[in-house]
Amino acid sequence: MKKFILSTFLLITMIAVSCEDDESTVEAPTARFTYIVHQDDGLTINFTNASLNADIYIWDFGDGSSSAELNPNHEYEASGTYTVSLTATNSGGSDVASEEIEVTGALTLADLVDTWKVAPEAGALAVGPSQGDGSWWSLSEADVTTRSCFMDDKYTLGSDGSFSIAMDGETWLEGFQGVDSDQCGAPVAPHDGSGSYTYQTGLEWLPEGQTLTLSGEGAFMGLPKANNAGELPNVDVPTSITYTITEFVRDGAGKRLVLDIECGTGVWWRFTFVSQ
Length: 276
Prior knowledge:
By secondary structure, the chain is mainly beta. The protein has helices at about 1-25, 140-145, 150; strands at about 35, 45-50, 55-60, 65, 75, 80-90, 95-105, 115-120, 125-130, 135-140, 155, 160-165, 170-175, 185, 195-200, 210-215, 240-250, 255-260, 270-275. It has 3 helices and 19 strands.
């Protein structure tokens, strides 16, 4: 009888120790995830859980929202930078993976409302025989410095449809504006920003080919000589100018706008701007 009791005690002890060993050998989880941006909506992110050895998952999307789904999709309300965290848990513990992601919604015509400057980079102004061809002349790195009086000119598209130009006392002048050679100088009317200007866009937003029309004598973006009829002084000063919006995208925390205009026939100017 004593032997039976002793054997039973030893068996129970072995089972208990075995259970403790099983619990102590549970491998701790490893949290990790990947994500892709929805191709048609930059505010929607598809998350894929790639964690190891976990059975409970908690997502924190960085905007006050969370989820316990395995592979959630999340739609943000606004563009911005968000820190996303995934906590993976099992009986052996928890692990957290975090990543900062940038969310940018698709731009609309309303996003044109801003103050713009010519991009401080080579090629921001260019001219050639066809659209996008800057083979005749383009702004060089040296020009960015030489024409600094022009590079700080500001073009503002207002939410009320107004348009304004601010030149801070100086801009780049060309021969048709009464100077002997191209140089910095005081703005010359009617391209001095003193007029009353408005703007409008096409009725529908298109990824390419949308237009931007500035109205008012002396209104322009880029170089004042470039207009739809030709180049000044070979044509009259127009009362409106229509540009083609070739590119309108996010650029880091700002926006990038590329305008093309055919001056008469076979003379294409391209102006690249960045928001302020």
